[in-house]
Amino acid sequence: MHMPQEQYTHHRSTMPSSGGPQVYKVGIYGWRKRCLYFFVLLLMILILVNLAMTIWILKVMNFTIDGMGNLRITEKGLKLEGDSEFLQPLYAKEIQSRPGNALYFKSARNVTVNILNDQTKVLTQLITGPKAVEAYGQRFEVKTVSGKLLFSADNNEVVVGAERLRVLGAEGTVFPKSIETPNVRADPFKELRLESPTRSLVMEAPKGVEINAEAGNMEATCRTELRLESKDGEIKLDAAKIQLPRLPHGSYTPTGTRQKVFELCVCANGRLFLSQAGTGSTCQINTSVCL
């Protein structure tokens, strides 16, 4: 038996119910709905602002597929173009400039380069400051491109490996202690002068000291005393002419014709003097010079 839809609906609605009719509403209504719409709108605004800021940062920092700003990523590593500033430590295996350009390190105070071992202990340190350049290490060396040693310094000695050491200072070179060298010579057509203004000048060698002036004179000048001493050997004056122009003269004058011939006399203390020659030796007569 078929019943019309109106009657069936009326039949369901007129069915008895113990609790009365119940109505179920699906969805969000009232102030909750308005708050939800507000938060959704606020979230969309934040998303748009965040997207705009991200696009602006990408544009300002010049982000590209190859890198950002002056930083480029290449097959050989990172490439920086222009001036770069690092506020934190930089760790790199190698830092080099672009081909044909110089590499500059700029600092307001100093630039320090440290070489560390496995225990982070400083082995070598180079400090370039506004007043001085300081290097700390066990040995310091300067070499040519071919590897020839030009200069080296350590705790034991300082070595100059150049062909010639030239000092251009007006006061010359000052050695507070001794100097050891196989040869001391002046530049061509220049004079060599060894002088001690306030103290003595000592030259020592286990096998002898040779002073040679091939194209000029040699002078030894002092204020008080010049001593030539040979403990085990002899002192040889080998020359075609030897002159002692300022030797004192004895007071003895023999009778008769005055001669211009003198004999060289030696006192017991080693002093030399001239005595006018006679038929015999006159040195014993002029002993007043030895007093």
From TrEMBL:
The keyword Phosphoprotein does not apply. It is found in: Cell membrane, Sarcolemma; Cytoplasm, Cytoskeleton. The chain crosses the membrane at residues 35-58. GO terms for biological process: cardiac muscle tissue development; heart contraction. Keywords: Cell membrane, Cytoplasm, Cytoskeleton, Disulfide bond, Glycoprotein, Membrane, Signal-anchor, Transmembrane, Transmembrane helix. GO terms for cellular component: cytoskeleton; sarcoglycan complex; sarcolemma. It is a single-pass type II membrane protein. Pfam families: Sarcoglycan_1. Its main location: membrane. InterPro entries: Sarcoglycan (IPR006875), Sarcoglycan_gamma/delta/zeta (IPR039972). It comes from the Eukaryota. The keyword Disulfide bond applies. Belongs to the sarcoglycan beta/delta/gamma/zeta family. PANTHER family: DELTA-SARCOGLYCAN (PTHR12939:SF6), SARCOGLYCAN (PTHR12939). This is Sarcoglycan delta. It comes from Myotis myotis. The lineage of its organism: Eukaryota, Metazoa, Chordata, Craniata, Vertebrata.
